[in-house]
Amino acid sequence: MRTVYGVAQLLVFSFALSAPAHGETALARAFAAAWQRQPAAAALGERERAVAAQRAAAEAWTAQPPSVALGVRSDRFNDNKGAQENEIGLVLPLWLPGERGSSQALADAERDALAGRYELQRLRLAQALREAWWAWQSASNEQALADERRVAAGRLRDDVARRFAAGDLSRADLNQAQGALAQAEAQQAEGEAALAGARYRLESLTGQPLAAAEALPEPEPQAVAALHPLLRDAQARGAVAQRSLDLARAQGRANPEVAIATRRERVASGEPTEQTWALALNIPFAAGPRQDARVATASAEAIEAAVEQERETERLAREAEAVRRQVAAGRQQLAAAEQRARVARENRGFYEKSFRLGESDLPTRLRIESEAFEAERALGRARIALAQGISQLRQSLGLLPE
Asked: Measured between alpha carbons, how far is 275 from 260 in angstroms, rounded to an integer?
């Protein structure tokens, strides 16, 4: 006879947590699909283009684009003697000392900050996807077990009904078997509703219909050398703040301007036209309180970013250690759940045989059946909890689904 809950084990639990997964898991494929649906992924190309344009502007020879100045002067509306003056000039905004280098450094910091910000967004998406993924796996486990319990309860009810018709069992026994079947059907319906909700939440992230449950765990993290995306983002924002501070200090006044102009002038009609050239230098005064406000704001942002990076480093270290302890505890719980399930299966086999031989009563059989179901449920939950713990450990270390 087919072992009760065997189908559930084949559907949900056919994996070994002690061995790392090979190849790309379904979770990694779901993450790739979910990221493609994110608005940030769609806008990444344009943001990179904006950063590249900012770097190109910082490499220009002038602080701002050059401008052309045009001027016309005439006595047409007063004496009207034919006096006329035309002037055209080119205005070149100049870099302040250190401003060009600071602008280039800020553009590079903005580029690194963009990369760090997108890595952090991917990690946050991974957190939401992992939570939805393992909730779906858990709901699939509960549904598979509920289906098996419904089948087992139906077989038991049919067996009791035949023996009641033969006079071996009482009406009370038949009522108990029918009640157990009704309870199994209610749990099956409850599991279907929970599974539908979990599937909806996951499909809303991936945008794809879900295939059959696949509970392959992610590979356990080994030594992690890369900087955590949270720290990389904080570090990049700190660099942007520091470069902004350097630029604010360099921009102590508005940009000076050099103007090169030529003028063609005629004093009256019939007189010869004369042309002159002019070179002008415009040097603004210091910005004063406006400059102080900019420097103070940039300094405050740099301080906040540095302190935030320190706190995040401490928090991430504690979080990773706590999750490692949870994973270790999950292994112990799994071992205990496996032992309990083995004992429950053996007991169920013993009492199933003794019930058929009339050596045990129906209440005892129902109790053993319930114990076997709870043991299988605990085993499934322990396996999924351990796989989820490994995912959470990878999350705490800043690793994306693989």
From this structure: 14
Strand arrangement, sheet containing 67-74: 67-74, 84-93, 257-266, 274-282
Tens digits of residue pLDDT in 281-334: 888 887 678 888 888 888 888 888 888 888 988 998 899 899 999 999 999 999
Query: Which pairs count as long-range contacts for 175-180, CB under 8 Å and 24+ apart, including other chains?
Result: 176/362, 176/363, 176/366, 177/153, 177/362, 177/366, 180/153, 180/156, 180/366, 180/369
CA-to-CA separations, 282 to 88, 256, 276, 320, in angstroms, rounded: 17, 5, 20, 59
Q: How far is CA 330 from the centre of its chain?
A: 25
Domain spans of the chain, in order of start: 6-396
Question: 157: closest CA among 389, 366, 388?
Answer: 366
CA gap 334, 217 in Å, rounded: 14
Q: Which residues of 228-260 are buried (b: 16+ CB within 10 A; e: fewer)?
A: bbbbbbbbbbbbbbbbbbbbbbbbbeebebeee
**Spatial distance between the Cα atoms of 48 and 105, rounded to a whole number of angstroms:** 16
pLDDT tens-digit readout, 39-55: 988 898 899 999 899 88
Distance separating alpha carbons of residues 355 and 5, to the nearest angstrom: 19
Per-residue pLDDT tens over the stretch 106-137: 999 999 999 999 999 999 999 999 999 999 99
Domain 6-396 fold: Outer membrane efflux proteins (OEP) (1.20.1600)
Name the DSSP letter for residue 226: S
211 CB-near residues (< 8 Å, 6+ apart): 26
Rg (CA), the chain: 38
* DSSP code for 169: S
- Which amino acid belongs to residue 226? A
Average pLDDT, the chain: 83
Cα–Cα distance measured from residue 38 to residue 323, given in angstroms and rounded to the nearest whole number: 28
Contacts of 346-350 with C-beta under 8 Å, sequence gap 24+, read 347/371, 347/372, 348/4, 348/372
CB atoms within 10 A of CB 388: 23
